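cron nightly-structures :: item 1 of 1
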Amino acid sequence: MTAEYAIRAMVQLASEKSNEKMHISDISSKQGIPESLLRKIMGNLVKLGLVYSLRGKGGGVLLARPGNEITLLDVIEGIEGKIYLNQCLIGPDLCDRTPYCPVHLVWREAQDTMLNVLRRKTIKQLATENKKMYKKYLSENIGVS
């Protein structure tokens, strides 16, 4: 759930006006993330250079780079580390069957496809899609337009 929460928080920040700071407590309540966990996640995102943290009165957090320069893969791998669908993709020393295993080729293709999708999708794109989807949801389910 840590990467999921990090993505939600990053999308929330990308939804704000450029250089708009948010309090972690506000992100927590808007995204349904436990505040204590979000504080730890934000600390990691700051260390990764994805978020700035400003302390004191008027402080808060904001994206360190424009949302269209931060990919979903940046966030996931930053929080979780490199993603591998199978251990044989980590390195040849973890599976001696790799040179002649037909499933390895399937794992490699699936891995490459997944990474390409995550690399192409930016946090800003997700924020834009989120606004559209939420507006549609409200319209269809609550009658708000």
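cron nightly-structures :: done
Strands lie at 51-54, 60-63.
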